[in-house]
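Record format v2
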Amino acid sequence: MPAAAIVDQLAVRLSATLGSGGVSRGDDVLRAHGSDESWHPPAPPDIVVFPASVDEVVAVVSACRETGTPIVPFGAGTSLEGHIAALQGGVCVDLTRMNRILRVDVGDMDVTVEAGVTRKQLEARLLPEGVFFPVDPGADATIGGMVGTRASGTTAVRYGTMRENVVALTVVTAQGRILRTGSRARKSSAGYDLTRLFVGSEGTLGIVVEATLRIFPTPEAISAAVCSFPSVDAAVACVVDTIQIGIPMARIELLDEIEMDAVNRRSGLAYPVAPTLFLELHGSESGVAEQSAAAAEIAAEHGGSDFAWATTQEERTRLWHARHEGYEAVLALRPGTRGYVTDVCVPISRLAECMAETRRDIEEAGLFGPIVGHVGDGNFHVTFLVDPDADDEIRRVEEVTERMVRRAIEFGGTCTGEHGVGYGKTRYLELEHGDEAVQAMRSIKDALDPAGLMNPGKVLP
Amino acid sequence: MPAAAIVDQLAVRLSATLGSGGVSRGDDVLRAHGSDESWHPPAPPDIVVFPASVDEVVAVVSACRETGTPIVPFGAGTSLEGHIAALQGGVCVDLTRMNRILRVDVGDMDVTVEAGVTRKQLEARLLPEGVFFPVDPGADATIGGMVGTRASGTTAVRYGTMRENVVALTVVTAQGRILRTGSRARKSSAGYDLTRLFVGSEGTLGIVVEATLRIFPTPEAISAAVCSFPSVDAAVACVVDTIQIGIPMARIELLDEIEMDAVNRRSGLAYPVAPTLFLELHGSESGVAEQSAAAAEIAAEHGGSDFAWATTQEERTRLWHARHEGYEAVLALRPGTRGYVTDVCVPISRLAECMAETRRDIEEAGLFGPIVGHVGDGNFHVTFLVDPDADDEIRRVEEVTERMVRRAIEFGGTCTGEHGVGYGKTRYLELEHGDEAVQAMRSIKDALDPAGLMNPGKVLP
């Protein structure tokens, strides 16, 4: 933790640079900036700054560097593994004032935005242009935060994650210099892939201040559907067949029976209380119609109910609104509890087995945790509902989560499909990647941030 | 260059490990392993080794490390920027004995192969399974080489490059240890993206010995077509519209009139001698039919000739064979010359302009250089035909190439879309990426290969 005198001096210096409105040391502001939406203990920073330009970020990093002060970047605060906790105190760099959409190019199908632009803000700007940015993690996260955690969500099965959809980045380095990665070319073999190195680095290698992203033409036709299955196994088998045959699903979400019950209650719906797939197809009118029929046929082979295809915007909005409200719906099932969300991802051939063993664990531990999955990617979340005062319950949740992560890694998968490592999952990194890979990651961290000031305590164990 | 005595000792030691058949110092072998298909001066290694296993690669790297001997990995030798030239001598690690396909999984749609497996070998193995690996650089390169150069080719517009299609890697590090990157999960947010860091690193950070790759279901229907245009501008405008409207082209290749003339002569065809698009669509029967019609309509708007769609395997094979023979076809136009191939890539909105200015440069310099482009990606190649004895001609080719690269970078593009940096393009790296990014790349190189033994003189200036 920086000494109080250093913090005082730094605050004065930063106020001189950013103006007094650009710096805050108020208790509420500090507390809000040390907390995310996770279960992990929050840790407030000593100072929060609100830079409005790349140059102001440079000034902040330079000042921190000279005083040896840790730096934690902050977007919407919606991350789930303690990414923004200021574990060693220091300066939180809130990027939400850097929220300009700098360039929209429907010819080259790319946009450049400042890191503080939120997903929904970008969506609204792109809608009238007939294009969209596909990565949708649910929360209205900032693009900078989504770059940091290598976010994905419901559409990754078709459009990929942030890994595939970031074209180029502007980063303020640990040395307080401006580094640009990538060009606007769609592909390049010119040197090491720094863009992909910063995507998913969670602010530990530098602060992402601008991002160039791929966009896509809004499909001519979109069709969404809901289909229930006799078992999770049957639903997953349906997904595997769908992917093997090459139907280009835009979304394939699985909700288990508990989650469906919650969704019905929350949204006043009457879906069967059974494992259910929410699907979406994008394409031409006839293409979508043909693919819908093919998907329905595969579903029927696995005991799926009749598909109810929703082709109008209103129907689809209702359907996906219900899906996206899943988290709140689940929380409402057990008032007074808080959600504890897990995030493993496995090869799809092991998904049914992984979910079944997880379900058994949950039941044996006497816990309450519905499952929802981006099953086209092999990624699923358990939302444990936990009484914050029941230590024994928390312990059991942690045990089941630990087993789930170890199982996923054993099955050739990962401890986190899309939420990131933060400080909640650093202890799984060696188990997943092995000693040699983690050592290589640490060498890279030391090379780019030798003083260790960039979001310390995150990603690496 | 290692001293002769060290080379002698090392050869003895390596022979003891790999057997005498696993080590060669024959002149022809050394010469063949120091030359690629480029114009750059070759540089033979001192020793060539042919390891048959990961452990043997570890043994080779360890021996080289202890003696401070440079290490250059080698696949098919088809690279184009001097990647495999042993600029400081040392040991060439020929990976072609490591050519086992270790695992094919059509459930998870991935395969794991040793680095020496060639593209066509993999294609043949996957064909009966009803799946395919999409990255096709033309040459029958090894997968290891394609990983190293971040290769792509005609299908990148639909399926992406090696960047998108490598799931995980096994690498022998500069320390002679085995590092595994990635898991088999389709996505992950667990730590720095080492997989993408090694893809495109050209053997300068370690030796890729195994790769897990994505595969795709063979499309139900494939349709290919040829369409000629009044000008390169018109052809490119057609491509831009096609992409903007979201037609999922599997290939979009542009050949200029000189290239078409060459192709006609070589393959006994009678296509109009005009800028021409070679297209391919993948999907269901009706989907492909619908997209063909939409593409034809857009082409007609830009003055394109009637499409001749080839839907049978034989017709398509003939068509793409003609396209793939383009290089040989062009060489045949001026017997006694050698090809000098360039490789820029720009945002597609600047492509027509970039090609037009390049064409003007070529004419003004009195050079002969047909253009062929993966235009869906904004990537194109000029194949200069150069008399190896005409120094003045070589100088003019180099000048035009230099201008082409600078123009591409100025247009927001890259000095190499798919061939890589090798030692032929190191001098453009700072121009393209800026000082700060190149310094970051160098820090990473120093962190992972502190002794600088891994393919020295490549990638970094």
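The first strand of chain A starts at residue 23 and ends at 24.
The first helix of chain A runs from residue 4 to 18.
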